[in-house]
Amino acid sequence: MYDLTSVLEFDALSEVRPGSSILISGPAMSGKERLAYDVLADGLRKGNGAVVVTTGDGAGSVVEEFRSLVPDLDDSQLGVIDCRGEGGTDEAAIGNAHAHHVSSPGDLTGIGIGITKALEGLHNAGNEQGRLALVSLSTMLTYTDKKTVFKFCHVLSSRLDSAGYIGVFTIDSGAHDDQTLQVIKQAFDGMIDVRDAEGGGREARVLGLAGEPTDWQDI
Amino acid sequence: MSDSDLPVVLIVEDEPDVAETYKLWLQQEYEVRMAQNGDEGLEQLDADVDVVLLDRMMPGLSGDEVLERIRERDLGCRVAMVTAVEPDFDILEMGFDAYLSKPIRSEQLHETVDNLLDRSEYDSLLQEYYALVEKQATLEATKSSAELAESDQYDELSQRVAEMRDDLSETLGGIEDDSDFIATLRGLSDDEDN
Lengths: 219, 194
Hints:
The complex is a heterodimer of chains A (about 220) and B (about 190). Chain A has 7 helices and 9 strands, in the order E-H-E-H-E-H-E-H-E-H-H-E-H-E-E-E. Chain A is of the alpha/beta class. The two termini of chain A are about 25 Å apart. Chain B is an alpha/beta fold. Chain B is about 55% helix and about 15% strand. Chain B has 8 helices and 5 strands; from the N terminus they run βαβαβαβαβαααα. Chain B has helices spanning about 15-25, 40-45, 65-70, 90-95, 105-140, 145-150, 150-170, 180-194; strands at about 10, 30-35, 50-55, 80-85, 100. The two termini of chain B are about 20 Å apart.
């Protein structure tokens, strides 16, 4: 079981079953990506492997980011699949992390090969447990249709299940129509909703992982 | 159109004895087509073909070239590479869905073909599942929760979605290994282009 309560203090997150995939949904600039990275950083501190599939940040800057989140980071515990399709690999920044470049966020086969290699690299480095973050589904949805993204999420969840990993995937709730959001949600075991709180700050709730949806709570 | 309801396997192999042996093993369960070289293989290939057994080393077009053309045509068939030595490169990256190294035993051949057909079944179940989810989402996006609670149609749909979700994860065992994973993703990208 994965305990995510040191990232978000919800009982529903205290025992997340291996193989679970969680959607992190919220408006732009509501800290979804931060939250996804915190879930991975928390895992790294506990000896879990971490895989980041990024459509926005370069592999080098993701590795740097995790070095600052987890000061005693062992690079070989981290895999990054950089889907920006931009050249220029910062080898020095990547270090011993498992980095893989994919031509575009719409190249699902390429992303799959990258994930496979990252999982293999982490496995060889001795990781039996791990966490994967995909940031963001919203960018993928601009490259390919919702049907394909839905199926991709489903297939990836199934792969994470057989690896015993958990996955967190971010989506910008303001960037898509209700129907698209409803469809994408169905590919996941549960969801963390994030929003700006009325009095400032942010709040979140958890749906679908254990019991009834939780109430909104400051984070 | 295919003459039977059996899945169609295309054998592309330049050695007649070897090709005949594969055919003998497979013909009870599948409709088998034969081609002696890459060009003939591409002629025999159409939307009915489910699995291609492709010899890598052939005079004329090589297996790799044939594969490339198959993928360009987006036919959605699964391709197993038949090779004399265990490949030391990444067959998944090259676009093959599986490989078999010679000499091949009957049992092994059946297992590979069955496994590739299962993946196609997983694809079509996933397709069906998506159609249900999309309908459900449309109702959720257009009706109030009170209306949904009253709706038998929504209730039934939600049940079917839950059932199919279990089917997908249990009956087929989901994604078991890396080649399943990549081959299934490749299938998704192919669908998208159609």
